[in-house]
Amino acid sequence: MNLQNRPVPKDQKSAVVLLSGGLDSATVLAMARQAGYQVHAISFRYGQRHTVELDRALQQAKLQCLNQHLVVDIDLAQFGGSALTSCSIAVPKHNCDAEIGNSIPVTYVPARNTVFLSLALAYAETIAAHDIFIGVNALDYSGYPDCRPEYIEAFERMANLATKIGVEGGLIKIHTPLISLTKAEIIARGLELGVDYSATSSCYDPDPVTGQPCGRCDACLLRQRGFQQNAMSDPCLATVRK
Length: 242
Fold this sequence. Notes:
Structural class: alpha/beta
CATH class: Alpha Beta
Radius of gyration: 17 Å
Strand order of the largest sheet: 3-2-1-4-5
CATH architecture: 3-Layer(aba) Sandwich
Number of strands: 5
């Protein structure tokens, strides 16, 4: 379902939305649009193994009728240190979500959100936008330290100290509308807004040719549980499960 464009008022506020192509970021994109912002989306080709997410980001930008969408190239794979940027580190797989541990997993990419938010901040200041949206979540997530509320609060303080906008009195706000929602609640909200979740990819280890999700990594299992709690199947996993 396409989310229809509305006429853009001359005084409409602009916002930068981090768009990975996953379930959470697609929902945040729809929420920012529903809140009346003129959205400037930014995605990153950062050396990730699961590049299908960039295809899904492009799909979401089209489905949600965006006119402004940047894909920025950086190479965190030069550092490695994560199963998402190094093929020598295996992505953990489980038979069910109950097997997901509480420690920070090897799919954590060192400082990724700090790098992403810094570039989004530079983009926002360039276009005189005071609002940045990111789909971090502190409930149904894999334990990443850069998804916590205290991290976002600290980054927002830094952003207002380190920018011309902040120094001149125009506050920058980091919006995290999903941070206290379960995956089921996120999906329910997105469905209300018409998000097409079949055009998203959350998998950490998708098939390199078809892009089909593995169905067993942390991201797949948490996502699947969220759809099950909404009494439906994950539209991306439906073609994988027998």
